[in-house]
C-alpha cells in the first residue's frame, strides 16, 4: 500500500473486521488516559494517572507485525492528593529524580479480529520486565481538522516489587499499607502521522 493510499484510506477491512490502515499512528497525549489502580489498607482502591504519555503505534500490513513504543513522564502522576503524589514521586516509590521516565516497547503481537495481546518490555524504576498488554481496537473517527484517529484500549497487571518499588508499611491488624499488585488501564487515542 502506498503513502497516498494510506492517506485516502485510513482504515481497512480484514476478515470482516474494521481496522486501522498500515502506517504510523502517533499517540495524542491530550486524549490518552494511562491509569493505575492499587489498594490502600489492602481494601480501598486508589487510582492514579499519568498526563505525560507519548509514543507511536506502527500498524503493519499484518497486524501481528505491528509495533508499539510508549514513553511515560513519571513526574506527571496525579492521584487526587498532592501529598500522596509527592510521596509517589519520592525516592520511596517512583524516585523520579533518578528514573524520570518509564517505557514500553513491544516485542511480539498476537492478534485476531479486533483484539489481541501485545507482549513487550516495560521499564519502570530502571528495571525491565516482559509484560502482556491485552489490547482491543475500539474504532476509527475522522476528526474535525482533517485528521484520522484510531482508538485502542489496553490493560495489564504488574507486581510493583518486581520493578524494585518495594516501600511499604506493615499494618497492626495484618497485611500491608499499599498493595504489591497494580492494575494498569489505558485508553489510547492515536492520530495518523502526516495528516
TrEMBL record:
Domain called Lipid/polyisoprenoid-binding YceI-like: residue spans: 24-191
Record Pfam families: YceI
Transmembrane feature ranges: none
InterPro entries, alphabetized: Lipid/polyisoprenoid-bd_YceI, TTHA0802/YceI-like_sf
Organism this protein belongs to: Nocardioides pini
Entry similarity comment: Belongs to the UPF0312 family.
Protein name: YceI family protein
Top-level taxonomy: Bacteria, Bacillati, Actinomycetota, Actinomycetes, Propionibacteriales
Organism superkingdom: Bacteria
Record-linked PANTHER family: PROTEIN YCEI
Amino acid at each position: 500500500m502506498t503513502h497516498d493510499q494510506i492517506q485516502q484510506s485510513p482504515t481497512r477491512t480484514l476478515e470482516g473486521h474494521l481496522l486501522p490502515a498500515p502506517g504510523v499512528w502517533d499517540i495524542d497525549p491530550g486524549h490518552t488516559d494511562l491509569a493505575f489502580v492499587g489498594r490502600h489498607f489492602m481494601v480501598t482502591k486508589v487510582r492514579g494517572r499519568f498526563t505525560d504519555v507519548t509514543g507511536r503505534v506502527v500498524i503493519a500490513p499484518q497486524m501481528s507485525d505491528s509495533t508499539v513504543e510508549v514513553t511515560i513522564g513519571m513526574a506527571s502522576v496525579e492521584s487526587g492528593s498532592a501529598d500522596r503524589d509527592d510521596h509517589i514521586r519520592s525516592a520511596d516509590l517512583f524516585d523520579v529524580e533518578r528514573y524520570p521516565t518509564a517505557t514500553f516497547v513491544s516485542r511480539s503481537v498476537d492478534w485476531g479480529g479486533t483484539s489481541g495481546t501485545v507482549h513487550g518490555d516495560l521499564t519502570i524504576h530502571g528495571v525491565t520486565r516482559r509484560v502482556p498488554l491485552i489490547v482491543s481496537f475500539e474504532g476509527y473517527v475522522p476528526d474535525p481538522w482533517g485528521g484520522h484517529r484510531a482508538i485502542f484500549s489496553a490493560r495489564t497487571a504488574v507486581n510493583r516489587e518486581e520493578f524494585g518499588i518495594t516501600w511499604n508499611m506493615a499494618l497492626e491488624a495484618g497485611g500491608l499499607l499499599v498493595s504489591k499488585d497494580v492494575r494498569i488501564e489505558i485508553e489510547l487515542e492515536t492520530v495518523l502521522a502526516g495528516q
